[in-house]
Structure formats: C-alpha cells, structure tokens
Amino acid sequence: MIFFLYGHDSYRSKEKLEQIKTKFKNEIDEKGFNIITLTGDDFDLEKFNSAAVQSGFLTSKRLIIVKNLLLSKPNKDLADQLLELLKKLKATENIFIFYEAGLPDKRSAMFKFLNKDKKLSQIFEALTGKALTDWLKKYVQDQGGQIQISALNLLIASIGNDLWQLTNELNKLIAFKNQEEIKEQDVREFVSVKITENVFGLTEAIAAGNRPQALKLLDEQLKSGLNEIYLLTMIVRQFRIVAQLKSLLSQNLSPAQVTQASGLHPYVVKKTLPLAKKFPAAKIQTIYQKLAELDKQFKSTSLPPETLMDLLIMEI
Fold it and tell me: Where would I find the DNA polymerase III delta N-terminal domain in this sequence (predicted)?
C-alpha cells in the first residue's frame, strides 16, 4: 500500500500524515518501533530498499515514510530505480507514505505512478473563501474557543490563508480570551497590528538592501518566538501584496480604487502603499523570486532555515 500526500496546504497534509501514523501505532505497533522516516535531501536507495523488503520487528508490517523526495528533484537514475522498486513493493505487507510539503512536478514518471491510485493519493489545495472560514470556525470550536465572524474575517484579511499562521494566532487569542468570545478588536490589538508592523519593517529593510537592519529585525522576530517558516511565509505574502499594489498603481488608480481592486483589507493597503510607491517593480519582483526559491530550499536542504534566511538577506 502506497499513500501519496501532496499540495500547497502542508498543514492539512501533515495532519493526514499524523493520522495515518497514529492509526498504525494504535492497530499495529504501539511503540512505533517499525516507523521509518527518510527525507528527500539525503535519500539513500539502499537504505530505503533495506527497510522496504524487511517485515516488521515483532509485527507483520512496517510504516515507511519518505518526505519531500519529489520536491528535492532526485536525479533520473535514482528516480528510475526507485520507480521499478516501488512497482515490486506494491504487493508487500509494508505501508509506504510519500509526503510532499508542496506541489511536485506533475510531469515526472514518479509523480504519475504515485498519483495513479486515487484512493491512496490526496492533494491538499490551499483553502479559500467559505471553505477556509468553515475550517477555521471548526478549529476554534475544537479548541474550546469562540470567535465573531467579523473577527475571523479580519484575521484572514491580515494574514491570508496559510493555516500554520492562522492556527498559531488563533491559539494565542483563544488562550488570551480564556473561553470568552474573540472579537474584532482583539484581532486588531493582538494580531493585525503586531504582525503587520513587524513584518512590514523587515520587508522594508530587505527591499531597501539595508542588510544590518534586516538581520537585526530578523533576529528579533526569531527570538520573539516566530519560527522561520512562519516568518518566511509572512514576508513572501507581504512582497506579493507590494507587487500587486505596484501593478494597480501603474494604472493611475486612487488609493480607494486600489483598495477595492485589490480585495485587501483597507488597513493592509494603507500600510503597504508607501512601500509599493517607493521601490521599482523590477526590484520587488527579483526579491519575490528569491523568496520563492528560499521556500523551496526550506523543503529540500538540510541547512538550518535561519541560516538560509541570513544568506538570502546577505545576497539581496
């Protein structure tokens, strides 16, 4: 049995991965001795083959997880050998999970093979609109909290649809309110202003090429408790907004028209417009592309994320 989990929404795909692991522990291997995890950046075919052909220790099965192999873009020889091996392993008792925290190249033979069985393959698209709102409402309820719909809408407007960020901020709000209903003012005070101001300052320093200030602000954000992936996603979103507003400004629209056309929250537009006016579109696009490349490196290299972010700032 070969599961294939992939897609941009790594929060829900990770949840699914954990569900399969939990089921395996509950039904087959309580201690988890027979769960083996390999990663794409240091994938070794011999190690995989050794783990795959053996039966479990004191059980009939093993659970073998391979993370981000396709995103790491293995060479053709390795991919071809692994593909032939997987065709033989489909009939074994062992369970395999190929997990990709993103969207791999759909044209590859490996992707087509893993995605063939739709009962075992699942894509996790980023949630939007009503689906996103409904998911978040249920999340708050499951955590024992309450939230006004206007507060939830403002949270989405301030952060976007990244579930890692949204759940992180919701957890803080739920703990702060202690079972009381989360209101719009709570979001404004504890989420919108704090995150937008912090990330805005870092974004401006990066765009201006002010390396000492950017490194200083980055260090402050990491020390405050924000993890690297969370912070990178926020910076990428900020530059995406800057690029969007820059494009709208080129059409000679008024600030009010820019706000309406962008679909962004007025507060976000107000804070970001000066930055969009200040820097050339080409520079913004170059930085945005470098950030997108950094996001891929996070998922395919063994270097610490903080080191990768420091190197990026030094390159810009």
Answer: 4-120
